[in-house]
C-alpha cells in the first residue's frame, strides 16, 4: 500500500468530479421547486377548470383566436354556464392582472417563449409607457 | 374452420351495413352539433360612402386619420418608405387616374381625397394570399388574420389601390400611445383597414366615420334597402376607384 495517498486522493477527486452537478446547483442556489405563479385573489372562477387550464390553456387560446378572427364568434360558454368574451387582454388579463407574476413565471420556468405579447399588449406595460 | 362461403358473405354484408349506418349517424351528429353561427353576417354587406365635397370644406382636417391611428395602434415610422397607413389622403388625379377628363373634374383635380381599403367584393389580395391570412368575410369585410401573415407581400403586389402596408421594422417603439384594447402588429406583417370590425362587433361604427365632424363619411349595410348608404347611392351619382379592374370596390365617392 505504498500509493495509499495517491489512491485516496484520486478517489476523492473522482467523487467530487462525478457529483459536480449537485455542487454546482447548490452553489448557484437552484432548487427543484416548480414555478410559483401568482393566482388572482379577487376572482375564483376561470373559464375552465384549473387542471384543464394548467395543461391546455394554449389550445384554448388558439381556438379562441381562430373563432374570433376567422369565424366571427365572440363569446365563449364556459363549463359552468357563464359566458365570456374571447379576449386575451380583455378577459384573461382582467383577472390575471399581473402578467409578469402569472404568465411569465411558468413560461420562464418551462423555457417557452409564446409570441402572444409581440402584438397583444399587457395593459401594465401600456400604463408604464404612458406614465 | 366451420365458416362456409355463404355464412362469410352474410356476416360481411351485415358488418358493412353497420359501418355505413354508423358513419351516417356520426356525420349527422357532427353537422348537428355545430350550428352555423354568424347569421348576422349573411345579410350584411358593409360599404362606405364618402362625400368629397363635404370633406374638402375643411382642407387641413385629419380627424379621421388621427382617430384610426389611435384606436389601431398604427406606428409612425417618419420614414416615407416605411409608412403604415390604413386611411390616408391622395390627390384626386392619383386616386382616380382613369378619370382623365380634365375639365369636368377641374374642381377636384389637385384636391386630396380620403382613401382606404376598398373591401372589394372580388378582392385580388385574397386570391393571392398563400396562407389565407387575408380573407373575405360573409359581410364583405376583407379581413386580416395577422397571426397567419408570413410577410410575403403578395397581397401588396395584388392590391391595385395601395391599401396595404408592410411593417419593415418593429412597430412598437413607433407608436405614440399604446391602446391595450387593440393589438399592435409585429415586424414582417402586412396590415390594412378592416372597416373597424372589432368596433362593429361591439355595435359601434368605424372610428373614422365617428371622428368626421363634417359627416362626409357614411357607413352602412348595402343589403338593407332602407340604409343610409343605399339611399345616398340611389339619390346621387357615385364613382369608385378603378372599377374597370373588376374588383368591385365597396367604397363609393359621391360626385
Task: Give a short overview.
The complex is a heterodimer of chains A (131) and B (255). Chain A has helices at residues 4-18, 20-28, 50-71, 88-95, 99-110, 123-130, and strands spanning 75-77, 83-85. With 131 residues, chain A is mostly helical.
Features of the shown structure:
heterodimer; A: 131 residues; mainly alpha; 2 domains; two-stranded antiparallel ribbon; 6 helices; 56% helix; B: 255 residues; Alpha-Beta Plaits; four-stranded mixed beta sheet; 31% helix; elongated
What would your notes on this structure say?
The complex is a heterodimer of chains A (131) and B (255). With 131 residues, chain A is mostly helical. Chain A folds into two domains: 1-32; 50-130, no CATH class. In chain A, 56% of the residues lie in helices and 5% in strands. Chain A is built from six helices and two strands, in the order αααββααα. Chain A has a two-stranded antiparallel sheet. In chain A, a hairpin with a 5-residue loop joins strand 1 (75-77) and strand 2 (83-85). Chain B is α+β, with helices and mostly antiparallel strands. In chain B, the strands form four sheets. In chain B, strands 8-1-10-9 form a four-stranded mixed sheet. Chain B has a two-stranded antiparallel ribbon with strand order 2-3. In chain B, strands 4-5 form a two-stranded antiparallel ribbon. Mean pLDDT of chain B is 87; it is low at 29-39. The longest helix of chain B has 29 residues, at 5-33. Chain B has helices at 5-33, 39-42, 52-55, 63-71, 92-95, 124-128, 154-158, 197-201, 207-211, 228-235; strands at residues 46-50, 87-91, 112-116, 134-136, 142-144, 165-166, 190-191, 217-221, 238-239, 251-254. Chain B has a single domain, classed as Alpha-Beta Plaits, CATH 3.30.70.20. Chain A binds chain B through residues 65, 69-74, 89-90, 115, 118-123, 125-126, 129-130, and chain B through 37-38, 41, 73, 135, 137, 143, 145-147, 177-186, 201.
Amino acid at each position: 500500500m505504498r500509493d495509499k495517498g495517491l489512491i485516496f486522493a484520486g478517489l476523492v477527486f473522482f467523487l467530487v468530479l462525478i457529483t459536480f452537478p449537485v455542487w454546482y446547483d447548490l452553489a448557484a442556489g437552484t432548487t427543484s421547486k416548480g414555478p410559483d405563479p401568482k393566482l388572482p385573489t379577487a376572482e375564483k372562477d376561470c373559464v375552465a377548470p384549473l387542471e384543464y387550464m394548467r395543461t391546455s390553456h394554449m389550445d384554448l387560446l388558439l381556438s379562441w383566436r381562430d373563432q374570433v378572427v376567422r369565424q366571427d364568434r365572440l363569446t365563449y360558454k364556459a363549463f359552468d354556464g357563464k359566458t365570456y368574451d374571447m379576449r386575451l387582454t380583455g378577459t384573461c388579463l382582467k383577472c390575471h392582472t399581473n402578467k409578469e407574476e402569472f404568465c411569465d413565471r411558468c413560461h420562464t420556468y418551462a423555457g417557452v417563449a409564446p409570441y402572444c405579447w409581440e402584438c397583444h399588449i399587457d395593459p401594465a406595460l401600456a400604463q408604464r409607457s404612458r406614465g | 374452420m366451420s365458416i362456409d362461403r355463404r355464412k362469410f358473405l352474410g356476416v360481411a354484408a351485415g358488418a358493412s351495413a353497420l359501418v355505413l349506418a354508423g358513419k351516417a349517424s356520426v356525420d349527422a351528429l357532427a353537422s348537428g352539433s355545430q350550428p352555423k353561427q354568424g347569421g348576422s353576417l349573411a345579410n350584411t354587406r358593409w360599404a362606405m360612402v364618402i362625400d368629397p365635397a363635404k370633406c374638402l370644406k375643411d382642407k387641413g382636417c385629419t380627424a379621421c386619420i388621427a382617430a384610426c391611428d389611435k384606436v389601431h395602434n398604427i406606428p409612425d415610422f417618419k420614414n416615407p418608405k416605411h409608412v403604415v397607413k390604413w386611411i390616408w389622403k391622395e390627390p384626386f388625379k392619383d386616386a382616380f387616374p382613369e378619370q382623365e377628363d380634365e375639365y369636368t373634374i377641374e374642381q377636384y383635380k389637385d384636391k386630396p381625397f380620403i382613401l382606404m381599403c376598398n373591401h372589394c367584393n372580388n378582392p385580388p389580395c385574397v386570391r393571392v394570399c398563400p396562407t389565407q391570412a387575408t380573407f373575405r368575410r360573409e359581410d364583405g369585410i376583407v379581413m386580416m388574420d395577422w397571426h397567419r401573415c408570413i410577410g410575403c407581400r403578395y397581397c401588396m403586389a395584388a392590391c391595385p389601390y395601395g391599401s396595404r402596408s408592410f411593417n419593415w421594422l418593429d412597430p412598437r417603439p413607433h407608436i405614440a400611445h399604446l391602446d391595450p384594447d387593440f393589438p399592435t402588429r409585429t415586424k414582417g406583417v402586412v396590415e390594412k383597414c378592416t372597416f373597424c370590425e372589432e368596433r362593429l362587433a361591439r355595435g359601434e361604427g368605424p372610428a373614422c366615420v365617428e371622428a368626421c365632424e363634417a359627416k362626409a363619411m357614411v357607413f352602412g349595410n348595402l343589403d338593407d334597402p332602407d340604409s343610409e348608404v343605399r339611399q345616398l347611392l340611389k339619390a346621387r351619382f357615385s364613382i369608385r376607384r378603378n372599377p374597370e379592374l373588376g374588383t368591385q370596390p365597396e367604397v363609393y365617392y359621391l360626385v
